[in-house]
Amino acid sequence: MEESKKDKVLEWCKSEEWLKTCIEGILFISEKTVKARDISSVLGIPEKKVCKVIETLEKEYIEENRGFIIKRTAGGFRLYSNPSLNEILSKFVKSNIHTYISQAALETLAIISYKQPVTRTQIAEIRGVRADSVVLTLMDKGLIKEAGRLKEPGNPMTYRVSEKFLEILGINSLDELPPLDDFEESNENNGGNESNKNN
Predict the structure, then answer these.
(1) Distance in angstroms (rounded) separating the CA atoms of residues 79 and 180
(2) pLDDT tens across 91-120, in order?
(3) In a domain, 17, yes or no
(4) What is the DSSP string of the chain?
(5) For residues 34 and 50, what is the distance between their CA atoms, to the nearest angstrom?
(6) Least CB-packed of 166, 176, 179, 184 within 10 Å?
(7) Contact 19/53 with Cβ under 8 angstroms?
């Protein structure tokens, strides 16, 4: 009889509803993106099962127009507020703690996002000014990370954006960034227009 009770408890613990409760709780308390493999390890279920339960939760939140949604970011999952509540939440939150970054840092982040992996020299060539201090600042904030060295004289370090950067933007990969015209092509066109004006 005792064994039968244990079996029922185990069966209930592995049920779809209980798994949804567990996964929802894990995502709720996490301050960063959660990988399916980490949830799988904690709950002792296959990663495929984790993804299936999360897909069910995603649909439920959208269909019920809940105050939060699940987004796939940086190769994992994270809870975000419902986009339809942006205006209301902005009014409610009178003061936010922001990590302000300079225009130079924003430009450098954009270059790294679209050109990664990229060296400091390559960043400087595109921006027209040295990028050493800006790169260090972005490293300190955890928005970029080292991506290895180039096999060329001096073996310069290359950089790429971090998972934290993807999390802040709320995207799963850089493929979700809006397409931009090729930098060099744009510069050539602008240069040509200036030349025509001067003639």
Answers:
(1) 29
(2) 776 544 455 678 888 889 999 999 889 999
(3) yes
(4) -HHHHHHHHHHHHTSHHHHHHHHHHHHHH-SS-B-HHHHHHHHTS-HHHHHHHHHHHHHHHHHTT-SEEEEEETTEEEEEE-GGGHHHHHHH----------HHHHHHHHHHHHH-SEEHHHHHHHHSS--HHHHHHHHHTTSEEEEEE-SSTT--EEEEE-HHHHHHHT-SSGGGSPP---HHHHHHHHHHHHHHHH-
(5) 11
(6) 179
(7) yes
Distance CA 77, CA 46 (A): 16
Count of C-beta atoms within a 10 Å radius of residue 159? 25
R_g (Cα) of the chain, nearest Å? 23
Q: Kindly state the tokens that stand for 134.
A: 């800006």
The span from the CA of 101 to the CA of 143, in Å, is: 11
Residues 68 and 116 in one domain: no
Q: What is the pLDDT of residues 20-47, one digit of tens each?
A: 999 999 999 887 899 999 999 999 999 9
* CATH number of domain containing 165: 1.10.10.10
Q: What is the domain range of residue 86?
A: 10-90
